[in-house]
Specification:
single chain; alpha+beta; Bacterial Protein-export protein SecB; 2 helices
């Protein structure tokens, strides 16, 4: 293989693309002693932005509720990165973007979520590690094609 044909993967930039925090029932919610129910949702998107450059965004949404209808807080963090990915077969591009890149972004998203919740006056929520390979396989199986669209 020539030097030009070697696969290239590098991080160009990691950044918070969007951060949202809502505490709709403040200040009364701070007087509650009940432990809230925590719900976590993850979504990953990848888009080409230039020749060999891709933006991958990992969106983490954490909501806490008391009972069925009282919201404690809602935090959504879109942690993004610009990655240089070159000389990678097209069949491998999607797994790199949907598994490798989210693995890099997740610690940053976890920190942003925990920090936002703490700044809102609540105990931090520390997200457990995520197996992005298993999530990717589940999503590919659910779509039935074995592939997930990457734009």
């Amino acid at each position: 293989m020539t030097e030009n044909a070697q696969p290239v993967f590098s991080i160009e930039k990691i950044y918070v693309k969007d951060l949202s925090l809502e505490v709709p029932n403040a200040p009364k919610i701070y007087l509650e002693r009940e432990t809230p129910q925590i719900n976590v949702q993850l979504r990953t998107e990848g888009n080409g932005i230039d020749e060999g450059l891709f933006e991958v965004t990992l969106t983490v949404t954490v909501s806490a509720t008391l009972g069925e209808d009282r919201s404690v807080f809602l935090v959504e963090v879109a942690q993004a990165g610009v990655f240089q990915i070159r000389n990678v077969p097209q069949s491998d591009l999607e797994p790199v973007m949907m598994i490798g890149c989210p693995n890099i972004l997740f610690p940053y998203a976890r920190e942003a979520v925990s920090d936002a919740i703490t700044r809102a006056g609540f105990q931090p929520v520390v997200l457990a590690p995520v197996n992005f390979e298993a999530l990717y396989q589940q999503q590919a199986t659910a779509q039935g094609t074995g592939e997930i669209a990457v734009q």
